[in-house]
Amino acid sequence: MATNRTFTMLKPDSLEKGNTGSILEKINAAGFKIVAMKQTQMTVRDAQTFYAVHNERPFFNDLVEFMTRGPIVAAILEKENAVEDFRTLIGATNPEEAAEGTIRKLFADSMSENAVHGSDSDENAAIEGAFHFSGREVF
Ligand code: ATP
Ligand code: MG
Q1: Measured from the CB, is residue 4 less than 6 Å from ligand 1?
Q2: Are 20 and 10 spatial neighbours (Cβ–Cβ below 8 Å)?
Protein backbone atom coordinates (compact mmCIF):
# COMPACT_ATOMS: atom_id res chain seq x y z
CA MET A 1 0.00 0.00 0.00
CA ALA A 2 1.24 3.48 -0.83
CA THR A 3 2.44 5.61 2.06
CA ASN A 4 -0.13 8.32 1.33
CA ARG A 5 -2.86 6.17 2.85
CA THR A 6 -4.21 5.66 6.33
CA PHE A 7 -6.83 3.41 7.84
CA THR A 8 -9.75 4.42 10.04
CA MET A 9 -12.67 2.88 11.86
CA LEU A 10 -15.72 4.77 13.06
CA LYS A 11 -16.14 2.95 16.35
CA PRO A 12 -19.43 1.47 17.64
CA ASP A 13 -20.24 4.58 19.72
CA SER A 14 -20.26 6.70 16.55
CA LEU A 15 -22.73 4.41 14.79
CA GLU A 16 -24.92 4.10 17.91
CA LYS A 17 -25.17 7.88 18.12
CA GLY A 18 -25.95 8.29 14.42
CA ASN A 19 -22.72 10.20 13.75
CA THR A 20 -21.54 8.27 10.69
CA GLY A 21 -22.55 10.94 8.17
CA SER A 22 -21.25 13.86 10.21
CA ILE A 23 -17.86 12.22 10.76
CA LEU A 24 -17.49 11.22 7.10
CA GLU A 25 -18.29 14.82 6.17
CA LYS A 26 -15.42 16.06 8.38
CA ILE A 27 -13.11 13.50 6.78
CA ASN A 28 -14.10 14.61 3.28
CA ALA A 29 -13.86 18.30 4.17
CA ALA A 30 -10.31 17.74 5.42
CA GLY A 31 -9.31 16.53 1.96
CA PHE A 32 -9.20 12.78 2.43
CA LYS A 33 -10.36 10.59 -0.44
CA ILE A 34 -12.15 7.40 0.58
CA VAL A 35 -10.58 4.56 -1.44
CA ALA A 36 -12.29 1.72 0.46
CA MET A 37 -15.19 1.67 2.90
CA LYS A 38 -17.61 -0.77 4.53
CA GLN A 39 -19.87 -1.24 7.51
CA THR A 40 -19.02 -4.42 9.37
CA GLN A 41 -18.85 -5.85 12.88
CA MET A 42 -15.66 -7.23 14.39
CA THR A 43 -15.67 -10.55 16.19
CA VAL A 44 -13.91 -10.87 19.54
CA ARG A 45 -11.04 -12.58 17.77
CA ASP A 46 -10.87 -9.78 15.18
CA ALA A 47 -10.63 -7.12 17.88
CA GLN A 48 -8.07 -9.10 19.91
CA THR A 49 -5.94 -9.42 16.78
CA PHE A 50 -6.40 -5.82 15.62
CA TYR A 51 -5.45 -4.40 19.04
CA ALA A 52 -2.93 -7.14 19.94
CA VAL A 53 -0.30 -4.50 20.72
CA HIS A 54 -2.41 -3.56 23.78
CA ASN A 55 -3.08 -7.09 25.06
CA GLU A 56 -1.11 -6.58 28.29
CA ARG A 57 -2.86 -3.30 29.12
CA PRO A 58 -5.47 -3.16 31.90
CA PHE A 59 -8.11 -1.78 29.53
CA PHE A 60 -7.67 -4.51 26.88
CA ASN A 61 -10.79 -6.58 27.70
CA ASP A 62 -12.97 -3.47 27.90
CA LEU A 63 -11.54 -2.30 24.57
CA VAL A 64 -12.37 -5.62 22.89
CA GLU A 65 -15.86 -5.63 24.39
CA PHE A 66 -16.48 -2.08 23.20
CA MET A 67 -15.13 -2.60 19.70
CA THR A 68 -17.28 -5.72 19.19
CA ARG A 69 -20.57 -4.51 20.70
CA GLY A 70 -21.93 -3.16 17.43
CA PRO A 71 -21.05 -2.38 13.84
CA ILE A 72 -18.19 -0.14 12.79
CA VAL A 73 -17.38 1.65 9.54
CA ALA A 74 -13.91 0.75 8.26
CA ALA A 75 -12.23 2.86 5.59
CA ILE A 76 -8.95 3.42 3.81
CA LEU A 77 -8.22 7.10 3.22
CA GLU A 78 -5.85 8.74 0.77
CA LYS A 79 -4.20 12.12 1.11
CA GLU A 80 -0.67 13.47 1.17
CA ASN A 81 0.80 12.88 4.63
CA ALA A 82 -2.31 10.82 5.41
CA VAL A 83 -1.29 9.16 8.70
CA GLU A 84 -0.10 12.31 10.45
CA ASP A 85 -2.82 14.58 9.05
CA PHE A 86 -5.55 12.14 10.05
CA ARG A 87 -4.20 11.87 13.61
CA THR A 88 -4.34 15.66 13.74
CA LEU A 89 -7.91 15.64 12.43
CA ILE A 90 -9.11 13.12 15.04
CA GLY A 91 -7.33 14.68 18.03
CA ALA A 92 -5.91 13.19 21.23
CA THR A 93 -6.95 9.72 22.46
CA ASN A 94 -8.65 11.35 25.43
CA PRO A 95 -11.37 13.67 24.05
CA GLU A 96 -10.93 15.98 27.03
CA GLU A 97 -7.41 16.67 25.74
CA ALA A 98 -8.40 16.82 22.07
CA ALA A 99 -8.07 20.17 20.29
CA GLU A 100 -11.16 22.20 19.40
CA GLY A 101 -12.73 21.15 16.12
CA THR A 102 -11.19 17.67 16.10
CA ILE A 103 -13.41 14.64 15.54
CA ARG A 104 -12.84 13.30 19.04
CA LYS A 105 -13.53 16.70 20.60
CA LEU A 106 -16.78 16.92 18.66
CA PHE A 107 -18.02 13.34 18.78
CA ALA A 108 -16.28 11.33 21.54
CA ASP A 109 -17.48 10.88 25.12
CA SER A 110 -14.48 9.35 26.86
CA MET A 111 -11.00 7.85 26.57
CA SER A 112 -12.49 4.40 26.05
CA GLU A 113 -15.34 5.42 23.72
CA ASN A 114 -13.50 7.85 21.51
CA ALA A 115 -15.42 7.75 18.21
CA VAL A 116 -12.67 6.89 15.73
CA HIS A 117 -9.48 4.95 15.16
CA GLY A 118 -6.57 6.28 13.13
CA SER A 119 -3.43 4.35 12.17
CA ASP A 120 -0.27 5.52 13.94
CA SER A 121 2.27 4.75 11.17
CA ASP A 122 2.45 3.99 7.46
CA GLU A 123 3.37 0.42 8.31
CA ASN A 124 0.34 -0.06 10.57
CA ALA A 125 -1.92 1.68 8.04
CA ALA A 126 -0.98 -0.97 5.49
CA ILE A 127 -1.42 -3.84 7.98
CA GLU A 128 -4.77 -2.53 9.26
CA GLY A 129 -6.11 -1.79 5.77
CA ALA A 130 -5.23 -5.31 4.67
CA PHE A 131 -6.88 -6.71 7.81
CA HIS A 132 -10.26 -5.31 6.72
CA PHE A 133 -10.10 -5.14 2.91
CA SER A 134 -9.09 -7.35 0.03
CA GLY A 135 -7.34 -5.79 -2.96
CA ARG A 136 -10.53 -5.80 -5.03
CA GLU A 137 -12.32 -3.63 -2.43
CA VAL A 138 -9.79 -0.81 -2.72
CA PHE A 139 -10.23 1.77 -5.51
P1 ATP B 1 -6.72 4.22 18.18
O2 ATP B 1 -5.61 3.19 18.07
O3 ATP B 1 -8.06 3.60 18.45
O4 ATP B 1 -6.72 5.17 17.04
P5 ATP B 1 -5.06 5.82 19.84
O6 ATP B 1 -3.98 5.45 18.88
O7 ATP B 1 -5.35 7.29 20.03
O8 ATP B 1 -6.42 5.13 19.45
P9 ATP B 1 -4.05 3.80 21.59
O10 ATP B 1 -3.02 4.07 22.62
O11 ATP B 1 -3.65 3.08 20.35
O12 ATP B 1 -4.77 5.19 21.25
O13 ATP B 1 -5.21 3.01 22.30
C14 ATP B 1 -6.16 2.27 21.54
C15 ATP B 1 -7.53 2.49 22.13
O16 ATP B 1 -7.57 1.88 23.42
C17 ATP B 1 -7.91 3.95 22.38
O18 ATP B 1 -8.46 4.57 21.25
C19 ATP B 1 -8.93 3.82 23.48
O20 ATP B 1 -10.20 3.47 22.94
C21 ATP B 1 -8.39 2.66 24.29
N22 ATP B 1 -7.58 3.16 25.39
C23 ATP B 1 -6.30 3.60 25.33
N24 ATP B 1 -5.85 3.97 26.53
C25 ATP B 1 -6.88 3.78 27.38
C26 ATP B 1 -7.07 3.95 28.78
N27 ATP B 1 -6.08 4.41 29.57
N28 ATP B 1 -8.27 3.63 29.30
C29 ATP B 1 -9.26 3.14 28.53
N30 ATP B 1 -9.15 2.94 27.20
C31 ATP B 1 -7.99 3.25 26.64
MG1 MG C 1 -3.57 3.48 18.32
Answers
A1: no
A2: yes
